[in-house]
Amino acid sequence: MRLPKLSKLEMQIMEVLWSAGPSAIRDIQESFGLKNRPAYTTVQTMVYRLEVKKALRRARKVGNAHIFEAVISRDAAKARLVDEFLSMFGGRMQPVMAHLIEAGNLSPKDVTDAEKLLRELAAKKKRDA
């Protein structure tokens, strides 16, 4: 299944479902801070759009309220975002890494962790081959 492209507000709504679990629209809306809380109807519209995109589904009904749950995982959604981001650089990671290093946003520990992950992935590929 191809993962849907999600807007910033859609990702925020999904984050509520990933963190809090199945929730009603009112609960999702109230999870936003008072200062930047979108209107109930805005959240409702976005939830229905996410349902059409098959990112979430109605799990059950409690009284008049539908309870929604995430269908796609947080990791899958984040992977889609990273892939979209990298596509702006022709799929190349080098310009991104160079910027992170120059901006001081990449620590030696980040590099060590990345090297360890690369070694683990190489070993896994070797075992699977």
Any overview of this molecule?
- With 129 residues, the protein is mainly alpha-helical.
- It has two domains: 1-91, Orthogonal Bundle (Arc Repressor Mutant, subunit A); 93-129, no CATH class.
- It has six helices and three strands; from the N terminus they run αβααββααα.
- The chain has helices spanning 8-20, 25-30, 40-52, 74-87, 94-102, 108-128; strands spanning 23-24, 56-62, 65-70.
- Strands 1-3-2 form a three-stranded antiparallel beta sheet.
- A hairpin with a 2-residue loop joins strand 2 (56-62) and strand 3.
- The chain is elongated and about 55 Å long.
- 14% of the residues are buried.
- The model has no long low-confidence stretch (mean pLDDT 91).
The number of distinct helices, counting runs of at least 4 residues, comes to 6
Radius of gyration: 19 Å
The 3D shape can be described as: elongated
Q: What is the CATH C level class of the largest domain, in words?
A: Mainly Alpha
- Give a quick account of the main beta sheet: strands, pairing sense, barrel closure: 3 strands, antiparallel
CATH architecture of the largest domain: Orthogonal Bundle
CATH-defined topology of the largest domain: Arc Repressor Mutant, subunit A
Q: Work out the number of β strands.
A: 3
